[in-house]
Amino acid sequence: MSSQLDYPPRLKLARIPTPLQLLPRASKRWGAGKRLWMKRDDLTGSALTGNKIRKLEFIAAHALEQGLSTLVTCGGVHSNHCRATALVAAQLGLDCHLVLRADDEPEQHTGNFLLDQLAGASYEIWPAGEWAGNLKKIYARLESEFKASGRPALMIPTGGSDSLGVWGYIAAAEELRWDLEESRIERGVLALATGSAGTQTGLSAGVAIFDLPLQVIGYAVCDDAEWFNRRVSSDWQASLARWAQLPRVELVPHTRDHSVGPGYGRADASVYELIAELTRLEGIPLDPVYTGKAFQGVLADIRNDFYDDVDDIIFVHTGGVFGLFAHEPQLLAAAGRAS
After folding, report:
1. Which residues are registered as beta bridge partners of 313?
2. Fold of the domain spanning 20-47+162-338
């Protein structure tokens, strides 16, 4: 398949390409003879960091092209995507409004939410039980209000996961092509945490478009495998319908859901202990909401011979460092046990 894609307008926001890093001590500790790699998309920036930035390069470019002056998006109080959107808006001189889902624990109002406010984003916080059921109505109200006030808004879905945001990780797959050549990886697995399916959709499509020797496997942090597989397929069909320049590749999504744990935004002690141990082994912290759970799922699958036929496993570090601060007591306890 040709690598020449006609990408939509794109801003340069992320610090890319990000490194593909071998994890020698983690490989020795958990790899069972396989090489464990990490695609360091936690290094796409400093405060403006993580996987959401790749999507926002296309999303924000679209907003500017359409003459829109406000970015509206949604997520949990601790949302990495909301924090990234708020910072991108500040960087571009746009307004930002966040529709946040309340969390039960007051300590969740730290980290990302602090940065939302420092970036000047306005926000509204809804009870968790009402947020999802009212989101369409809330978005309709806000779109009307911002238009009437002369500040027309781009309404961005959870995680920036739609037929526009998908381009971020199609482009990342093109970047991975050079990583594979440089690291001499001939065949492997590309594993990632998946929460709103946008990164999973983009990588699945990009791997197919650029004919990379990788199988993309998402590790669910909420819902189940069937939900994610349906969502990837439907988002890809929406992308094909919107963008005539996209190659008509067929996706067969693969999702694992055995590491969801006690639910979205919650983790058990073994995840915290894994985060502490990996940080001491490789100097790379994961987070309890996304990457910690997904990495635990990968290691479980290695132990259970799920990856028996591959030698290289690439884990996409999608960021989330600011989410650590909402889990300080559990992480300190895990660090103490690891010492």
Report:
1. 36, 189
2. Rossmann fold (3.40.50)
Count CB neighbours of 242 within 10 A. Answer: 13
Euclidean distance between CA atoms 174 and 3, whole angstroms: 8
Please, are residues 35 and 312 in contact by the beta-carbon 8 Å criterion?
A: yes
CB count within 10 Å of CB 338 equals: 16
For tokens 């307004």, name the residue.
95
Q: What gap in Å lies between CA 141 and CA 278, rounded to an integer?
A: 45
Q: Is the pTM of this model over 0.85?
A: yes
Nearest to 44 by CA among 285, 326, 317, 324: 317
Q: Which residues are catalytic?
A: 79
Q: Which whole-number Å values give the CA distances from 112 to 25, 80, 81, 231, in the listed order?
A: 30, 6, 9, 26
Q: Identify the architecture of domain 52-160 in CATH.
A: 3-Layer(aba) Sandwich (3.40)
DSSP 250: P
Q: What is the mean pLDDT of the chain?
A: 95
Residue 145 has pLDDT above 50, yes or no: yes
In this predicted structure, what is the pLDDT of residue 20?
98
pLDDT, tens digit, 9 for 90 and up, residues 84-113: 999 999 999 999 999 999 865 555 567 899
Token readout for 90 is: 């500040």
Token pair listed for 276: 């502490």
Name the nearest CA neighbour of 87 among 113, 124, 106, 125. 113
Task: Report how far residue 44's alpha carbon sits from residue 26's, in angstroms, rounded to the nearest whole number.
Answer: 22
Burial state string for 26-51 with b = 16 or more CB within 10 A and e = fewer than 16: bbeebbeebbbbbbbbbbbbeebbbb
Give per-residue pLDDT as tens, 18-68: 999 999 999 999 999 999 999 999 999 999 999 999 999 999 999 999 999
Q: pLDDT tens for residues 4-22?
A: 899 999 999 999 999 999 9
Q: Whole-angstrom Cα distance, residue 199 to residue 206?
A: 10
What is the C-alpha to C-alpha distance for residues 227 and 255, in angstroms, rounded to an integer? 9
> Is residue 93 within 8 Å of residue 59, measured between CB atoms?
no
Domain(s) of CATH 3.40.50.1100: residues in the chain: 20-47+162-338, 52-160
